[in-house]
Amino acid sequence: MVRWDMEISKDHPRYRSLVTRERMSRLVDEGIVAPTGLIAHGRGEAFDYLLGERTIPVADAAARVAAAHLLEASHPVISVNGNATGLCAEALISLARAIPARMEVNLFHYSTERVERVCRYLEAAGARDLLGRRQESRLDGIASDRARCATEGTYQADVVLIPLEDGDRAGALARAGKVVLAIDLNPLSRTAAESSVAVVDELTRAVPNIERHVNELRDRPEERRALISDFNNARNLERMRKAMCALLEPAPNK
After folding, report:
1. Which of 202, 198, 145 is nearest to 169 (CA)?
2. Mean pLDDT of 223-236
3. Which residue, 60, 109, 176, 252, is the most exposed by fewest CB within 10 angstroms?
4. Tens of pLDDT along 28-78?
5. Domains of the chain: which residue ranges?
6. How high is the pLDDT of residue 143?
7. Main-chain phi, psi angles of 93, to 5 degrees
8. How many CB atoms lie within 10 A of CB 168?
C-alpha cells in the first residue's frame, strides 16, 4: 500500500476523523484491519453524519438496555474483529473488565497469522485471557470463516456483544438462542435488525456509554429487568431512522 506521511492540524474541523482514518490505514499495513475494513469504516462515518456525530438519547437508551443484558448474563462474551480492535481496543477491554465478560477475536478475513496479530495487539493494550486463537466450534448457518468460534466463548455464551459485525453472524447467533447486542451505525443493516438490542452509535462513543450504564446498573437488578422487558428493537430502529431523517430536514425559517 502506498503511504503518505501527513501532519494533521488540531484546528482542522475533521481532526478526530482524520486521525482515526490515518490510524486505521496504518493498521491495515500491520495486518490488524483488513483492507475492505476501511470501506466499512467509511460507510459508518457517513451514517454518523446523519446523527450529527453525537450520541442521541434513543441510542443512549439502547446502550443502557445492552448494559442491563450484559449484567444479567451468566456467560457474556464480547466478540471483537479487526475494525473494533483498531478503533477502540482499550475501551472494549475496559468494558469487559467492568462486566466482567470474556473477549473473543472473530474475523471475517481469517488466517491464523491475522488472528495472532489481533490478539497480540489487544494484549499489548491490556487484554488478558483472550479467546479466539483456538476456535474448536462452529455456528450453524454461516458459510464464511466467521462460523468459527471458541467453545468456552461465543459457543457457550448466553449474551454476545458484536461491535461492527455482519448480518449473517448476528442472525446465526440469534437462531442459536443467544441474546445479540450490536453496535452498528446503520439502522437499516441486517446486523441491527437481527439483534436483540442494536445500539446505533459510533463505536468509540457507544462502548464507554455501555460501561457507564454497567456501573450505574450493577446494584439495580429490578431496573435492569424492567429495561430489558420494556425494550423493543424494531421500535428502537424506527426511532433512529426518524432521527436521521429529521437531521436532513431544512431548518425552519425564523
Report:
1. 145
2. 98
3. 252
4. 777 777 676 666 766 778 899 899 989 999 999 999 999 999 999 999 999
5. 57-245
6. 79
7. -65, -40
8. 19
Mean pLDDT to the nearest integer, 222-234: 98
Residue 1 Cα distances to 12, 29, 30, 85, 246, angstroms = 26, 7, 11, 21, 40
Q: In whole angstroms, what is the distance from residue 85 CA to residue 125 CA?
A: 10
Residues 6+ apart with CB under 8 A from 191: 162, 165, 166, 167, 170, 182, 184, 198
- Is the distance from CB of 62 to CB of 197 less than 8 angstroms? yes
- Kind of pairing between the strands at 137-138 and 148-149: antiparallel
Instruction: Give the distance, in angstroms, between the CA of residue 214 and the centroid of all CA atoms in the same chain.
Output: 16
Q: Which residue in this structure is represented by grid cell 431523517?
A: 245
Predicted TM-score (pTM) of this structure:
0.88
CA–CA separation, 198 vs 200, rounded Å?
6
Give tens-digit pLDDT for 67-115. 999 999 999 999 998 888 888 999 999 999 999 999 999 988 788 888 9
**Domain 57-245, CATH among 1.20.1090.10, 3.40.50.11740, 3.40.50.12640, 3.20.20.10:** 3.40.50.12640
Q: How many contiguous H segments (helices) and E segments (strands) does the chain have?
A: 10, 7
DSSP state of 14: T
Q: Report CA Rg, the chain.
A: 18
Backbone angles phi, psi at 159, to 5 degrees: -130, 130
Residue 125 pLDDT more than 70?
yes
Instruction: Round to the nearest angstrom and report the end-to-end CA distance of the chain.
Output: 51
Q: How many CB atoms lie within 10 A of CB 208?
A: 16
